[in-house]
Amino acid sequence: MHQKRNERVVDLNPQETAEWVESLDQVIDQAGPDRAAYLLEQLTERARTEGAELPIHLNTPYINTIRPEDEVPYPGDRAMERRIKSLVRWNAMAMVVRQNKYDAGIGGHISTYASLATLLEVGFNHFFHASYNGQPGDLVYFQGHASPGVYARAFLEGRLNEEHLKNFRHELREHPGLSSYPHPWLMPDFWNFPTVSMGLGPINSIYQARFMRYLENRGLIPPTPRRVWGFLGDGEMDEPESMGSLTLASREKLDNLTWIINCNLQRLDGPVRGNGKVIQELEAAFRGAGWNVIKVIWGEDWDALLARDHTGLLQKRMGEAVDGEYQTYITKDGAYIRKNFFGKYPELLDLVAHLSDEDLMRLRRGGHDPRKVYNAYKAAVETKDRPTVILAHTIKGYGLGEAGEGRNITHQQKKLNEQELEHFRSRFEIHIPEEAARHAEFYRPPSDSPEMAYLHEQRRRLGGYMPKRAPMAAAVEAPPLDYLKESLEGSSGREVSSTMAFVRVLTLLMKHPEIGRRIVPIIPDEARTFGMESLFRQFGIYASQGQLYKPHDAEMFLYYKESKDGQILEEGITEAGSVASFTAAGTAYANYGVAMAPFFIYYSMFGFQRVGDLIWAFGDSRGKGFLCGGTAGRTTLAGEGLQHQDGQSILLSSILPTCTTYDPAYAYEIAIIVQDGIRRMYQEREDRFYYLTLYNENYPMPPMPQGLDAAGVLKGIYRYQAAGVPSGPGGATVQLFGSGPILNEALRAQRILADRYAVAADVWSVTSYNELRREALGVDRWNRLHPDQPARTPYILEALKGADGPVVAATDYMKVVADQVAPWLPGRMVTLGTDGFGRSDNREWLRKHFEINAESIAAAALSRLARDGQFDTGKARAAFAELGCDTEKIDPARA
User: Is residue 357 within 8 Å of 333, Cβ to Cβ?
Assistant: First the structure.
């Protein structure tokens, strides 16, 4: 008799079912659970082969993954470690409380570290290696809001002093202060990774672990047991970046990656999943993605209860209660827990009858039990061929009691009164003087105390103190500019795009005997768009397992070559993942002692506005490398339309203090910029990175002009071509600014003005409005602060000395890009740009629409000369018609 699918809940043969279950129990008793799992796997495969549709179960019961009988004893002195941890807790709490007492509103967080303390301390005492036999050690991504706890431990270690702690969130005072969260830019000797922007730590840690393998497989660093540890929040997992790349970690078999998700069940305002179970939700997602999942839910106090639970009702009750209920139990007394948790089933009341209400309140969550945490970490380290996530159940604000333990307001808790301070001290048995406790003073035991001896010995065994940022990479000499001679000489009349010119520069650099092996091309599945497929065979695409198939184009010269030591990171369609790789490579000089030069080439539209937060964090990380916005420009990328045509990335890049942006037109400009960028970042070791716009319009690349001073290219402007005719009878002269392909439109406008209107025009290549503005602002500031000194002159004015007449600046970007220099050219500038949404059409019509073609530039110049009394107004009006410029059409910025 066959049972229909919708009748599966009915047991048609209970006796047969019981016999199967009994057989399974016998296998477990005699051969162990591993044998039982194997048999079930074989049966499942056979059932599916025979057509049985089996449900997919990605969840295990709501209990600890590691059974008590499989645990090893805790290797450390638990009493000693608890005393140390309690002191760290105290100093972390005191740091925030004191600061908000004396500087109301300065902020800080107590509750996150309160929930995380055990998870971190077990790592600090037993797992986090600062080095491996002289090689760099583990990389730890700390949960950002827990920074007071990390500072407090460094204080006990003697790496920070009391003045540092007193100046938490006071970075601009006489004594060096501590940054609010992990920020390498602000504390370059301490923090490695900025993590407090939710979601960035998770994705960066995945790609960091992958890049570690990349360096090892390419022979750039020796293989060691080094690991990446990520401490993350359960609420943080809702960010798309947090879980968007999980399958990369399993696909790459990143057993060097361990995530610890601090499941305190609360986000900033309330429960993460009040009506559900976030641990179970995360378990299903990670198991489905191929991760090893270890749940640490219950402390060892629960082991005896579970062992005596022969009915299975305790495990059932644990699975029934939702997170909102678990949060409520934390805020109530033992009588409430007895009635509302255990009281649902009379058998459970009998199970805990021997426990007092106080005993029930002391039943710990797994994330606060060092033994459970240690065994989870040990299992993670021993897992091979897949990453591990540890889902640790904790309590937000643990130990704060009425001041915020488990309460919705706990994230914002900054102050404790004397009674609450005393509760905290007594809860954790913190041995500090009463007077010091009353005033929340910092406390560090004497250097010869047993606590200090133990703390230092544990870190000595693990290779030193953490976190610590200590860049060790040697300076790398940049190739001389002559090495790129081929790019300096132009294309000999052959039409090529600036993207192809860049690819040639990149290829030459990758062949260089020194810098070549350090180049990391990163591509989000657009190599053929950018003409980079020639690199596939020459340098190979990185694949951690090599190429397990024969590509269909294997017989072709430029076939798709993957290899274990490949140099190119072909990331697929993920700009976020690509920036995470860019970050890992761009900070390798600090994390691995190996200077790497990443070049991330992507659709410019899908850069800053899509992954701007990750790029901001890259700057905070003191990252180095080249962002290369391909298919740039709102009118140069023909046909693609509104979603693809970029007219704002240069503006967005301007907000990053360490980003140097260029909009080059010609191959020699690209060569000059890239060579100088390598020199500044890797030879001079400047903490900066570059953004280059690259276009897909083909035109002849001229050779570098004779006598050109490269300083003009690097500072942002130089005269590319002087006026070819004298000015007209009225002496009309104009200056034309162009950038990228629009420089060619300016050159054509120059000819129109000369041939048809006898107006002289100089044409200037503006490679960087951003740099011109920065330099000018710096000069203005110096002049303001030194009124008694002779005024300095911004470079934009130095360059334009003797260049008279109005300035017409045309760009394939928004007008505000060129307008950055308007304050230093008062009354002179007319700006033409591409404000507004893009359109699908060819370049001729797009540039006419946005009024940045040569005709529009010439018309704008004549109009401005007429306004200035330098050109006949009637002729200027007629010129618009002659040049095909519609004076009554709708403003493209609003079209």
Answer: yes
Distance, CA of 137 to CA of 284 (rounded, Å): 31
Q: Tokens 């005709």 belong to which residue?
A: 855
Asked if pLDDT for residue 809 goes beyond 70, the answer is yes
Condensed to tens digits (0 to 9), the pLDDT of residues 204-247 reads 999 999 999 999 999 999 999 999 999 999 999 999 999 999 99
Taking residues 807-836, report their average pLDDT. Answer: 97
Element (H, E) at 519: strand 519-523
Q: How far apart are CA 39 and CA 25, in angstroms?
A: 12
**Strand boundaries in 272-364, DSSP class E:** 292-296
Burial class (CB in 10 A: 0-12, 13-18, 19+), 448: exposed
Please enumerate in sequence order all residues whose Cβ is within 8 A of that of 161, keeping only pairs 6 or more positions apart, or say none: 155
Apex 612 CA angle, 640 and 892, nearest 5: 40
**Residue 889 identity (one-letter amino acid):** K
Compute the 3-state secondary structure of the chain and give helix, strand, coil in percent, each to the nearest 5. 45, 10, 45
How many other CB atoms are there within 10 angstroms of residue 895's CB atom? 11
By DSSP bridging, strand 135-136 and strand 807-810 are unpaired
* Distance from the first to the final alpha carbon of the chain: 70
| C-alpha dist (Å) from residue 396 to 265, 331, 502, 644, 681 | 8, 11, 51, 44, 42
The 10s digit of each residue's pLDDT in 473-486 is 889 999 999 999 99
Q: Answer yes or no: is pLDDT of 4 > 50.
A: yes
- Per residue in 78-96, pLDDT tens? 999 999 999 999 999 999 9
Alpha helices in 758-853 (DSSP H): 769-785, 795-799, 815-818, 843-850
In angstroms, the Cα distances linking 882 to 707, 876, 887, 892 are: 38, 10, 12, 21
Find, among 281, 272, 293, the residue nearest to 64 by Cα.
Answer: 293
Amino acid at 490: G
Per-residue pLDDT at 482: 96
| Least confident interval from 477-491, 724-738, 780-794, 812-826 | 724-738
Helix count and strand count (H, E) for the chain: 36, 22
Is 846 a residue whose pLDDT tops 80? yes
Exposed, middle or buried, 640 (CB in 10 Å: 0-12/13-18/19+)?
Answer: middle
Could you give the CA distance from residue 611 to residue 604 in angstroms, rounded to a whole number? 11
Nearest to 810 by CA among 722, 749, 760: 749
Q: Can you tell me whether residue 809 is helix, strand or coil?
A: strand
pLDDT value at position 731? Answer: 72
Q: Burial level of 442, CB count in 10 A (0-12/13-18/19+)?
A: buried
User: What Å distances lie between residue 231 and 184, 187, 195, 258, 463, CA to CA?
Assistant: 17, 20, 10, 9, 21
CA atoms within 13 A of residue 641's CA, in its CB half-sphere: 2
CA–CA distance, 777 with 773 (Å, rounded to integer): 6
The predicted-structure confidence for 26-54, as pLDDT tens digits, reads as follows: 999 899 888 988 998 899 889 888 888 88
The answer to whether 813 and 786 are in contact (CB under 8 A) is: no
Residues 410-445: tens digit of each pLDDT = 667 767 777 888 888 888 888 888 888 888 899 999
Indicate if the pLDDT at residue 766 is higher than 70.
yes
pLDDT tops 70 at residue 14: yes
SS (H, E, C) 426-445: HHCCCCCCHHHHHCCCCCCC
249 or 529, higher pLDDT: 249
For residues 148 and 133, give the distance between their C-alpha atoms in angstroms, rounded to a whole number: 30
Cα–Cα distance list, 794 to 152, 778, 782, 827 (Å): 47, 8, 11, 17
Name the pairing type of β-strands 519-523 and 569-570: parallel
What pLDDT digit, counting tens, does each position of 341-362 carry? 999 999 999 999 999 999 999 9
Report the distance separating Cα 766 and Cα 788, nearest Å.
33
- Whose CA is closest to 82, among 449, 440, 406, 455? 455
